[in-house]
Automatic annotation (TrEMBL):
Domain of life: Bacteria
One MF term in the entry's GO annotations: hydrolase activity, acting on glycosyl bonds
Region spans: Disordered: 96-139
Keyword Zinc: no
KW Hydrolase (keyword) present: yes
Native source species: Adlercreutzia caecimuris B7
Residue ranges occupied by any Fibronectin type-III domain in the UniProt entry: 220-321
Protein name (database record): Bacterial surface protein 26-residue
Length: 321
């Protein structure tokens, strides 16, 4: 029996509905991208027996790009639900993209093409697979409509100031949870820059993807480090490394943070040091005889926005009673 239905209807742009009630899926283990990029597909009719087998199979991006799809109970297609977990009959409390064949009107044929004998084309049936190899996919239109990048998630990794022109080298693009491949699915352009601030990144679709999406590449101040801590009565003094002349120009000030929690998850206090030439801070009114952890980062204010460096490594200091 058939074990592989991956890419079976991939890019079948003329499909508007499918009746899969007669499919034997008892042995299916793979339905990756089975319906992907069928942008006009509105309804998939199935039975409970059919969907049970599919929910147990591999189905990454099974419904990716099925923008018109709606389940029998009204569940609409979402980019956040494109794998086989929604390959089930849509019901209250159990959303899915299938419609129950037993309680739905008779489906229309998936295409408007006609057979040589004059009859209406029927939906493809799962071919037999006596050799145990992958089932052959039905023929598809020559070219599918590309998927828009309008709702793509773009992540650009920031870099620390070096004094040299910097450009993004780590850009991640995802559509519907699927990670796209640079060079094949998109290209990236960014002029970059030298100074601390934000620089526009443009992601342009390629191949099966179209449109553009913009994001920001950030150059952050160079991080500093804590050079010394000194305990005081119910407080402490912390000092940090003075920036070089070049780094000083890309620094407005510093942010000092302290906490009794080593991981800085709770009881966190902070203070901004607004002069870039000041490299120490006295903290008071703390609990006596208590261990505190302190760390520092540099910041620069550009056009009303704050750009913070990475945090320094935290150092511990115990206050005096």
């Amino acid at each position: 029996s058939v074990t592989d239905m991956s890419f079976m209807f991939d890019r079948c742009q003329s499909l508007t509905s499918l009746d899969l009630g007669s499919f034997d899926t008892s042995s299916v283990t793979d339905m990756r991208s089975m319906f992907s990029r069928c942008s006009l597909l509105e309804t998939i009719y199935a039975t409970g027996k059919y969907t049970t087998a599919l929910e147990e199979s591999c189905g990454d991006n099974a419904f990716s790009g099925c923008l018109s799809l709606r389940g029998g109970n009204g569940t609409k297609y979402s980019d956040s639900h494109t794998d086989a977990s929604y390959a089930r009959i849509d019901a209250p409390g159990q959303p899915g993209y299938f419609s129950d064949k037993a309680s739905s009107p008779a489906p229309q044929p998936p295409t408007s093409s006609t057979n040589p004998g004059g009859g209406t084309a029927q939906p493809p049936t799962a071919p037999s697979n006596s050799g145990g190899s992958a089932a052959a996919a039905p023929s598809a239109p020559a070219k599918a409509a590309p998927v828009s990048l309008a709702k793509a998630q773009v992540t650009v990794k920031s870099k620390a100031y070096t004094g040299k022109t910097l450009k993004p080298t780590s850009v991640t693009v995802k559509v519907g949870g699927k990670k796209l491949v640079s060079g094949r699915d998109y290209t990236v352009s960014c002029k970059g820059g030298k100074a601390v601030g934000s620089y526009k990144v443009t992601v342009k679709g390629k191949g099966a993807y179209t449109g553009t999406k913009t994001a920001a590449f950030k150059i952050l101040p160079k991080a500093t480090s804590v050079s010394k801590t000194k305990a005081a009565k119910r407080g402490f003094t912390v000092a940090w490394k003075k920036p070089s002349k070049a780094n000083l120009k890309q620094t407005t000030g510093y942010k000092v943070q302290w906490s009794t929690d080593k991981k800085f998850k709770k009881a966190v206090k902070s203070k901004l040091v607004k002069k870039n030439k000041t490299t120490s801070l006295k903290v008071s009114k703390l609990k006596g005889g208590k261990k505190y952890y302190v760390r520092v980062c540099a910041y620069k204010k550009v056009g009303g926005k704050y750009y913070y460096s990475a945090w320094s490594k935290a150092k511990a200091v115990k206050t005096k009673k």
